[in-house]
Amino acid sequence: MAPHVLILPFPVQGHINPLLQFAKRLSFKGPKTTLAITTFIINSINIQTDQVSCAPFSDGYDDTGLNGARDNIEAYFESLRTIGSKTFEELIVKQMSSSCPFTCMVYDTFVPWAVEITEKYGLPCVAFSTQSCAVSSIYYHFNHGLLDLPDSGATVSSHGLVPLERFDFPSFTFRDGSYPALAGLSLNQFNAPQKSDWVLFNSFDELENEVIKCLKEHWNARTIGPTVPSKFMDKRIKGDENYTMNLLKPERDLCINWLNKKPANSTVYVSFGSFANLQEEQTQELALGLKQSNKYFLWVVRASEQDKLPRREEFIEGEDKGLIVAWSPQLEILNHVAIGCFLTHCGWNSTLEGLSLGVPMVAVPQWTDQPTNAKYVEDVWGVGVKVKVDEKKVVRRDEISRCIKEVMDAERSEEIRRNARKWKEAAKQALCEGGTSDENLNEFVEFLNASSC
Ligand code: UDX
């Protein structure tokens, strides 16, 4: 039987992007791949590819997806688990009686309920984490009582992690009661994998060497990333043409035409990803900090966030100093020669994209895994600086401006740029033929071939 892998992402932008790219790389190496995507997402985007098939299932929110449930995320998760698991099973049943049945399932660790369903049909299940190895390790060890939050002022370093202070931990380890369903999902996402199971990570060995070694004590853990299309890394890998998916329409021409008129390394790109909501006060401080830095800036402010902005004339001097868009083609922007700094919330995709494209970063973490990613950006990989917050947990305009200058102009900026170039090269090498992630993927394909016999 030919290997046919069913791939199930958690249905949001930051999870579909890496799993789609993974599916594409996998199918280029031989196995057929099918991405299971919710009806809303399949109707909202245009994934055009011969390499990866898409199969729809319903999460009960066919008209809106998770975005329509932002006020009641718990209800969405419940619906995804109950309705989603039924319609997902129907999808499996239909395919199993076809001439090309599934032979394995790769599931996002945010949808662990899929394991029980899939195992009924005798399929091996492989976990895929869309977060860093460090964050995955923290969640696993914390939730199994093997890692405690340090006291204020103290650090912990175990399981291959660098010394971490309390505020470097993912926000959900504080169990402060916010977003209980999402906190539960994050904390429990590594309960399903057993000792010998495959667990794949969107990272690469060189980046997280010590942590991945420790994770191998628990699972058959492998890195297969970064899942950034290689065409953006000056080294085309065969079969790896660009397609990410966008739930929002990127204002591509506007962004690129505007950037084309800016000098090299002159512009700050600002984005907080697909989900984070900033407090109004924070948005205003950020706007005034960008003005104070006196740099050009291209800022993604989603439509739902734009009311929080100050009046344009308060923070954009002249016609051309700043551009606000509701969504951008992020990879193309980061790859543009005009960009000299990425002010980011440090979602894992954005962090990996910044690293892989060699862009120095100002880290402004908000919640979930972002504080941990920001810690690694500054202290471990040396590719940026992390902002300091005041007692109200707001980053003030002076601090924004100081950090941008530190990354773009100050003495330290040389070293940051050197590190950024180093990690860009390392990311590229990991993906090239014979690189660590490429070899790991080959090994995984061998497993798929063997288990489909
Ligand atoms: C979420 C979590 O916040 C993040 O911490 C976790 O690791 C993954 O899921 P999100 O907040 O959306 O993701 O951030 P991120 O992981 O950075 O993903 C955003 C994706 O959207 C990136 O691939 C980025 O390239 C893309 N994007 C963002 C665009 O294409 N255009 C934009 O304007 C902004």
TrEMBL record:
Annotated protein name in UniProt: Glycosyltransferase
Keywords: Glycosyltransferase, Transferase
Enzyme class, UniProt record, top EC level: transferase
InterPro entries named among the record's database cross-references: UDP_glucos_trans, UDP_glycos_trans_CS
Name of the encoding gene: LOC120267158
Homology family: Belongs to the UDP-glycosyltransferase family.
Enzyme Commission number, as recorded: 2.4.1.-
PROSITE patterns, A to Z: UDPGT (PS00375)
